[in-house]
Design brief:
Elements: E1 6-9, E2 12-15, E3 17-19, H1 22-25, H2 32-41, H3 45-57, E4 62-65, H4 70-83, E5 88-91, H5 101-104, H6 108-120, E6 123-126, H7 130-133, E7 137-138, E8 143-144, H8 147-156, E9 160-161, E10 163-165, H9 168-176, E11 184-187, H10 199-208, E12 213-216, H11 226-236, E13 242-245, H12 250-265
Length: about 290
């Protein structure tokens, strides 16, 4: 099997496709009913391991999300045991913030407990979740307040710092202030889902970023079909950038891997199209 292309971030080799975890944990961005369906039917160690195993066999060995979540952590371990391949973990924990944080900084004791947990779960990268990062963005000073303190502590625990953000300003200001981070997480999809400015603006931010960018939500939480969503993202990012894709089944994982490889190779994907009765007239006739 063709192995997925790779890039280097902070001296670490990563697959350019990253395994997303929202579909494992029940964050559908669709409805409470969809969230509940995921939690009741997908959020199981063995089912998660089944899906991760498909990615690992294709050389997609990088995963992103809230790693300190038992079904996910257990699923990763089981997939590693089955395949003999290690998973590179990009963890996106939240750190406590409050009205006093901009002036006094982060609570060191609270941060240390979280970083100890992340290290215990085997994280390689620690990228504060957007609920932490974006709350600290200061448009007046064009900086991310106290983030240098947090990045320094991440380094102390042997983890590689990055920023998870929904705000394009986070990337711009981190670059302008030479913040000690190795990469960024940014929402990027062709319909602008959850993006704070127009798609072409985010495309320019990603193109101009000084560090590699890990794009997320390429399929707009299922609102874009894989062919449209993946074709757009893979063709508008740089060779050093990445695409994060989550799935709920092993067959979906195999499809997005093959589709992505075909886009990068500029060939037709070897996947079966979905069928309905209305498509019967556009199918090629079977030779006699």
């Amino acid at each position: 099997m063709t192995q997925f292309p790779r890039t280097t971030v902070g001296g670490v080799s990563l697959s350019r496709m990253i395994i997303g975890t929202n579909w494992f944990l029940g964050w559908s961005h669709t409805s409470r009913a969809k969230d509940d369906f995921i939690k009741e039917n997908i959020a199981d160690r063995r089912k998660i391991a089944d899906i991760i195993e498909v990615y690992l066999k294709a050389g997609v060995d990088t995963i992103m999300g809230q790693i300190a979540h038992p079904p996910l952590a257990e699923g990763i371990k089981e997939a590693e045991d089955r395949t003999g391949k290690g998973v590179i973990i990009i963890s996106t924990p939240s750190f406590p913030i409050g009205p006093e944080t901009p002036a006094k900084g982060f609570d060191r004791g609270a941060v240390e407990k979280i970083l100890e947990r992340e290290a215990t779960y085997g994280a390689t990268f620690c990228m504060p979740h957007q609920m932490t990062t974006d709350a600290m963005v200061d448009r007046c000073t064009r900086s991310i307040r106290r983030m240098d303190q947090l990045c320094s502590m991440i380094r102390e625990y042997g983890l590689i710092p990055g920023l998870s953000t929904h705000m394009p300003e986070s990337i711009i200001y981190a670059d302008e202030t030479s913040l000690d981070v190795e990469t960024y997480i940014s929402i990027y999809n062709s319909m602008g889902f959850l993006m704070q400015v127009e798609v072409d603006w985010i495309a320019r931010v990603i193109q101009d970023a000084r560090k590699p960018v890990m794009t997320i939500k390429p399929l707009a939480a299922g609102q874009l079909r894989p062919f449209q969503g993946l074709t757009f993202v893979w063709n508008t990012i740089r060779p050093q950038d990445m695409v994060t894709v989550g799935t709920m089944t092993t067959r979906e994982a195999a499809e997005v891997i093959e589709m992505s490889l075909s886009i990068l190779d500029r060939r037709q994907a070897d996947v079966s199209l979905q069928e309905t009765r209305s498509k019967a007239s556009v199918k090629h006739a079977v030779p006699a």
